[in-house]
């Protein structure tokens, strides 16, 4: 996929036979089921359940953004606590799958999308996630749930909302400008916080891009071309943080 363009991915998900991607809907059932269990059983650190209570108390509004972050974090709570339920992964990671699937599902439900539109949205999310993973690597010092699956979710949500290349690229650039540098310091209960942030930002940055609010093309590692922006993200993750894992392990050993 290294030679692919975002336009190639978009054209594929718009033209591929629905029967070839219908299986992605199974991920909706799996990942939403474990999210519900995480909420009901208050699994692990119960981050999703705690945020759900904040919406009941009026501290956080009950809206599509918070619904996505609550469900994603609840699914992660349950998974990291060892609840014996499957999830559909993305790019080889269960937590990536939670992030790549749940925010688009929540938005598509909000938009009353039919199953085919939902499947195409999910295909977009999974493929952008995989595309980014080609550049940042299968294991990275940065949180792939944020900078790969979160970006995939945001791109797909922008598409589901009916917008084109310019807005989709804007959402991706906004996500790079927002979440680059979120470190991966191991698989653990606290990952739910990171999935929560990535899921809410996926929707926020899609909405901002739709309104023409996009990060400057020369801000930091952002490039005028979206593919170059993603390559820059990969270079930062691979070369720029090559000593991060060692330092994180040293810190953990000395805690």
Shape: globular
Q: Under the CATH scheme, which architecture would be assigned?
A: Orthogonal Bundle
Which CATH class applies here? Answer: Mainly Alpha
Q: Output the number of helix runs.
A: 12
Alpha-carbon distance between the two ends: 40 Å
Largest sheet: none
Average pLDDT confidence is 96
- The structural class is mainly alpha
**Strand share of the residues?**
under 5%
| Rg value | 17 Å
Fill in the CATH topology: 2-methylcitrate dehydratase PrpD
- What's the helical proportion of residues? 55-70%
> What are the segments in which pLDDT stays under 50 over at least 5 consecutive residues?
none
Count the domains.
1
In total, how many beta strands? 0
The helix/strand series, from N terminus to C terminus, equals HHHHHHHHHHHH
What does this structure look like?
This protein is an all-alpha fold. It has helices at 6-15, 18-21, 25-41, 47-56, 64-80, 94-110, 115-136, 144-160, 165-179, 191-210, 226-240, 244-254. Helix 3 (25-41) crosses helix 6 (94-110), helix 6 (94-110) packs antiparallel against helix 7 (115-136) and helix 6 crosses helix 10 (191-210). The protein starts with 5 loop residues before the first helix and ends with a helix. The mean pLDDT is 96.
């Amino acid at each position: 996929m290294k030679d692919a363009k975002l336009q190639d991915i978009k054209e594929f998900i718009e033209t591929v036979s629905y029967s070839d991607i219908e299986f992605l809907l199974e991920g909706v059932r799996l990942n939403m089921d474990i999210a519900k269990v995480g909420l009901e059983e208050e699994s692990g650190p119960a981050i999703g359940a705690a945020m759900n209570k904040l919406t009941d108390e009026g501290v956080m509004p009950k809206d599509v953004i918070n619904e996505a972050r609550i469900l994603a974090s609840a699914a992660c709570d349950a998974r990291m606590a060892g609840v014996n339920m499957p999830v559909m992964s993305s790019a080889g990671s269960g937590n990536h799958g939670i992030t790549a699937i749940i925010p688009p599902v929540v938005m598509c439900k909000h938009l009353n999308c039919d199953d085919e539109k939902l499947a195409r949205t999910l295909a977009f999310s999974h493929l952008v996630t995989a595309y980014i993973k080609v550049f940042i690597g299968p294991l990275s010092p940065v949180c792939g749930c944020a900078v790969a699956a979160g970006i995939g979710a945001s791109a797909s949500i922008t598409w589901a909302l009916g917008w084109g290349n310019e807005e989709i690229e804007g959402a991706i650039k906004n996500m790079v400008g927002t979440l680059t540098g979120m470190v991966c310091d191991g698989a653990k209960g606290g990952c739910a916080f990171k999935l929560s942030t990535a899921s809410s930002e996926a929707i926020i940055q899609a909405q901002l891009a739709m309104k023409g609010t996009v990060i400057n093309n020369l801000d930091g590692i952002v490039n005028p071309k979206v593919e170059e922006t993603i390559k820059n993200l990969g270079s930062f993750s691979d070369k720029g943080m090559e000593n991060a894992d060692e330092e994180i392990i040293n810190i953990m050993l000395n805690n």
